[in-house]
Design brief:
alpha+beta; about 180 residues
Length: about 180
């Protein structure tokens, strides 16, 4: 992962999406306000892909992080939403339309020797019968939301479940 400088347009878009996110974790909005004054990279974007019954989530097996939502680095000049959709397609072979409002914003570090960064999570509804074409070293698989999966981010399980319940309840996306 290249640690290139996130340009102002990308940071502005990340801030807009962070403000619109349904869920905020780790004091992400306050962290973002402080981080804007310094170098902040890499930004990350991922997709919480849920089936139409809101009972399953699509994850990929990362060699170090375990089972995680498909996602990755926002490239210089790339919008976070565009990066999430690109990474999702690259890692699953599935083209997904992301829901209008971001699912969540969080602060996390992806490696012990990297500083914390902003992570934007977008949601998509994906049919489970679509063929998955995963990257060679990163298999993709559907998990039942009640299932436990091995991940360095164990809080993701409850966060994704909460968002699935939020969507299943038919609430207006973006309501606080």
């Amino acid at each position: 992962m290249n640690h290139g400088h996130a340009d102002q347009v990308v940071v502005d878009e990340a801030e807009t999406d962070a403000a619109r996110a349904v869920w905020e974790f780790d004091g992400a909005r306050a962290w973002l306000e402080q981080a804007r004054r310094h170098r902040m990279e890499p930004l990350s974007a991922e997709v919480w892909a849920l089936d139409p019954d809101f009972a399953h989530v699509l994850l990929v097996r990362h060699r170090v992080r375990g089972w995680v939502p498909p996602g990755g680095k926002v490239e210089p000049g790339e919008r976070p939403r565009t990066a999430a959709a690109r990474e999702f397609l690259e890692e699953t072979g599935v083209r997904a339309e992301l829901l209008p409002d971001p699912a969540a914003v969080a602060v996390r570090s992806y490696r012990a020797d990297w500083s914390a960064t902003l992570g934007l999570s977008y949601a998509a509804i994906v049919d489970r019968d679509q063929s998955l074409v995963a990257e060679a070293d990163q298999p993709a698989r559907w998990f039942r939301l009640e299932e436990r999966w091995d991940s360095v981010f164990p809080a993701d399980r409850s966060r994704i479940r909460a968002h699935a319940q939020f969507l299943a309840a038919g609430r207006t996306v973006g309501a606080r």
